[in-house]
Records
---
Amino acid sequence: MQQAPKAHPPLPERVDIVEVGPRDGLQSEPEFVPTARKIELINDLVGAGIRHFEATSFVSPRAVPQLRDAKEVMRGVDRSTGAQFTTLVPNMKGAERAIEAGVDALVLFMSASESHNLKNVNCTRETSLERFREICAFAAQADVPVQGAIATAFGCPFEGEVPVAEVVRIAKAYHEMGMRVISLGDTTGMATPPLVQERCRALREAVPELEVTLHFHNTRGVGLVCAYTGLLEGITRFEASIGGLGGCPFVPRATGNISTEDLVYMLHECGVGTGIDLEHLLEAAQQTETLIGRTLPGQVMKAGSRLKTHSMDTVATANG
Ligand code: COA
Ligand code: ZN
């Protein structure tokens, strides 16, 4: 059988996928998803080979009622495979709850734009940074690693363009606090290939020690193109959500993340390994659709992978 040609530009041999569906995906779902179903979904994705999860958030249950069962989710998931479970944390109370629940790392999050930070976590960016310094000291005592997320890193729904200098400034502050892994969040799908290239290069120049993760939403249809641009820049860690579930409840017209199975499909077709079983993922995406009760945006889950052939009997012949 003829092998598919490999992508022309050199790409990383392997990347890590961080599944954020249980957090970013579910957080804006209006109907509460029972805790047992959340745990089943995560465990099924562990079975598909996913080794990194943003499992939930330790935020105010009044702000995000869907994730009020964060502790129970963390207690229920399969920890036997070495899969890593991180959770979002905005403040000290969240850090205490997350550490008590046994997370593998905290993900502290703030926005690159002031107005989104005010909307999302009800404080200024400087206050977020002050809180994070305290949390880093607290987490170090508990020997729990801390990662950082920067929301609205490619644009803000309230302010428009977000200067790259703001993203670099926050990334540097994170690095000074001891973080080694950060994520650039495209909260409202405003990233474009030139912006991805610019921000990856600026961070590599300013803080080369940081491992940069990319997090895209497919709001304007260019999510996978942005991920591919990241690959060309040598990024090897991407966040995505099963079925393309998702969206931030604190932005207008938010839509889903890039879908995990579409991203894995693209990566495998480009010869980039993920350690994930695509067929298993496609079944999980279909089950997630049943769980949520509506059609999800993922595309490969509808079409199947490209070499899935069909019986000729399944369609009529076009007689003239
Ligand atoms: N976990 C649980 N409860 C929390 C909490 C946390 N991490 N942080 C605060 N609370 C509770 C407080 O205990 C207090 O409860 P009480 O009124 O019963 O005493 C209440 O929330 C208000 O606390 P305060 O510190 O004044 O918070 P706030 O009202 O300024 O809200 C956040 C700040 C960060 C807690 C809130 O904006 C939030 O949870 N945002 C998360 C948004 C999000 O997840 N966005 C999606 C990700 S991009
Ligand atoms: Zn997001």
Note: The domain at 16-314 is CATH 3.20.20.70 (TIM Barrel).
---
Amino acid sequence: MQSNKVSIPDIFKKKANGQPITMLTAYDFPGAKLVDEAGIDIILVGDSLAMVVLGHKSTVMVTMDEMLHHCRAVSRGANRAFLVGDMPFLSYQADINDAVYNAGRFIKEAGMDAVKLEGGKERIPAIQAISDAGIPVIGHLGLTPQSATKLGGYRLQAKSAESANILLENAFAIEEAGCTMLVLEMVPAQLADFISDKLSIPTIGIGAGAGCNGQVLVYHDMLGMNNEFQPKFLKTFASQHQDTLTALKKYREEVENGGYPSPEHSFFMTDKEFAAFLALQK
Ligand code: KIV
């Protein structure tokens, strides 16, 4: 293992020392290279791939083979970050043996260090089996996009005292089952803070306030690539939709008006060689 590679003990140390843990998604070689170079602790190859890269309406459409294809590209681009592959819908829900086998493929065939899966107590057998196979498992509670239809859409979860208590019980249960970390998505900030304090494993929040041990955002969203997606929790750290559109239009204009390519972007043979070439045409 590379000496500066982020490890699970490094991540736990950050929680113990009160240092925020950084996580971002990436889906390809150039994106992973940039996230790694920026010093982000953890790269998640999220099943959000389905929506932000492949253009599906929900995350449930992405397949194991598509996830593995993108994980391989990410693992070629990142040397330092801890790498997490997101288990797609139906790769772990239907059968425990399938869950272990599919989790193993992320490690063995795609260079990931851990896998993430969604759900609470109902996932205990899968979490235990994957963890017993020696594979670190990251849990995911709150808004779990693979069950967004059942949850009534992409909305804040655990708003009532009762539902918050159920979420807390699920968090304890999956920690006990062997989860190494926990993603909390779209839950009230006080609840995420409380859970982060009670659990020994690190929590990583998205739309879960500042009390989590770390934060995660989707690469394309935080870079402002999609100006149609602006949920309350999202901060955009760049305006790539506008910047990229401006560049693409400028390219089109310059090709159309002859501004590009100019001599400085062109290759030339010597006048003598070109004259000789023309002589060959007579
Ligand atoms: O798929 C994904 O990108 C995720 C993050 C939003 C946590 O699960």
Note: Strands lie at 21-25, 42-45, 82-86, 114-116, 137-142, 179-185, 203-206, 214-217.
